[in-house]
Recover the amino acids of this structure.
């Protein structure tokens, strides 16, 4: 009899442990979906709110353009109109004493003329934080030619632009966060080159100072056909998966210097 009782106690203990573990599991999920700081030091982004944030188009006369853009993913219109290599006629300034930067950047470019990396990618922040002594005067450019795929604000009020890139058949999205303003004439579906402006550096949203939060991920954000990041929730799950696989955003494609004075 005593043995049976012991077994029951043992079973109860196991059951308790299982309940505790599952409870912890639920808490872990809550951390990802609620109020914990997503950004370290610089920003606070509520993932749940980001995922729920409305993707709003800021320009006029582009109702349904987002849908049209993604319809085009099957292989036509918007994407194929975009030249995916930098125009050869454009002379790009190069940082002095840094020959490496010349060869590195055939497709990918730095997002600003002047920049200093203040935070590198980590598991919780798969992005570069970049400041400039020019502050909000610093113009933000696409890191590669592409198509504007999102113009939206998050729940904290950060002005955000995303650009879709198609590099040799591989789709990438670059995301530019905390802008002080959008560039004039920006609209979802607009083809942009590395020489175009997306907006200006700022500190909108949960941010402690003027800087650019730049994320580059190898998926097509807002594309319903993209299993990895069809929405912002997917985007933030996928960036962690990719980071654990060694992917560090723009730094994966080119050598990003710690500081620069030209693109
Ligand atoms: Zn950041």
């Amino acid at each position: 009899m005593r043995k049976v009782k012991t077994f029951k106690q043992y079973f109860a203990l196991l059951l308790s442990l299982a309940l505790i573990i599952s409870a912890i599991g639920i808490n872990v999920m809550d951390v990802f979906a609620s109020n914990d700081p997503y950004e370290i030091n610089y920003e606070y982004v509520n993932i749940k709110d980001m995922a729920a944030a409305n993707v709003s188009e800021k320009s006029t006369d582009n109702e349904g353009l987002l849908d049209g853009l993604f319809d085009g993913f099957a292989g036509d219109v918007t994407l194929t109109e975009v030249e995916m290599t930098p125009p050869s006629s454009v002379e790009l300034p190069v940082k002095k004493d840094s020959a490496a930067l010349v060869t590195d950047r055939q497709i990918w470019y730095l997002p600003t003329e002047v920049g200093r990396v203040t935070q590198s990618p980590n598991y919780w922040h798969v992005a570069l934080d970049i400041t400039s002594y020019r502050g909000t005067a610093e113009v933000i450019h696409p890191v590669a030619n592409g198509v504007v795929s999102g113009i939206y604000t998050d729940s904290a009020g950060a002005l955000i632009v995303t650009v879709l890139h198609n590099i040799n058949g591989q789709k990438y999205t670059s995301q530019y966060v905390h802008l002080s303003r959008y560039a004039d004439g920006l609209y979802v579906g607009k083809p942009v080159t590395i020489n175009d402006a997306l907006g200006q550096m700022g500190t909108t949203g949960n941010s402690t100072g003027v800087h650019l939060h730049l994320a580059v991920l190898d998926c097509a954000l807002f594309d319903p056909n993209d299993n990895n990041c069809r929405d912002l929730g997917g985007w933030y799950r996928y960036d962690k998966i990719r980071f654990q696989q060694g992917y560090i955003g723009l730094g994966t494609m080119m050598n990003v210097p710690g500081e620069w004075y030209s693109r």
